[in-house]
Amino acid sequence: xxxxxxxxxxxxxxxxxxxxxxxxxxxxxxxxxxxxxxxxxxxxxxxxxxxxxxxxxxxxxxxxxxxxxxxxxxxxxxxxxxxxxxxxxxxxxxxxxxxxxxxxxxxxxxxxxxxxxxxxxxxxxxxxxxxxxxxxxxxxxxxxxxxxxxxxxxxxxxxxxxxxxxxxxxxxxxxxxxxxxxxxxxxxxxxxxxx
Length: 195
Prior knowledge:
Strand content: 25-35%
CATH superfamily: Vaccinia Virus protein VP39
Structural class: alpha/beta
């Protein structure tokens, strides 16, 4: 028998508060701790389906802000007026992709996760590939002093990736939200003050 996906505190709370997934509380914790989202700001959300981070970010930036979501999966959520969605593979980004999403973002978020195989090594490598793509995209679209938030599965190349983030940001922090599942290997790298 499959476990009920709504059978934990955060999942039930998400349903009650109108969010499509429990992952919203990870971003909420990151925001409370680091203030990566600003009122009136421009936010790029990579791997935005099913849309919880889009909704949360849109509420923080407000009517004068803009949130652009990107995912390879179509988004079925009804979006607020300050949110746009671009269906695209973030691993295959190019000039037309950058033209579609825009530039001059204050924050780049990446909650992208690979389809898992059950092999910790393979899953960590796939997660690293997505994270590298998110970092490369941020180098093209993030304004100076901007913030970068990226989920990555902890693996052998974690330190190397973290070091690459450090080269572009004044402060880099590793953060595991309380709302992450205990068994999860995910961790968030938060880069602040893009140089």
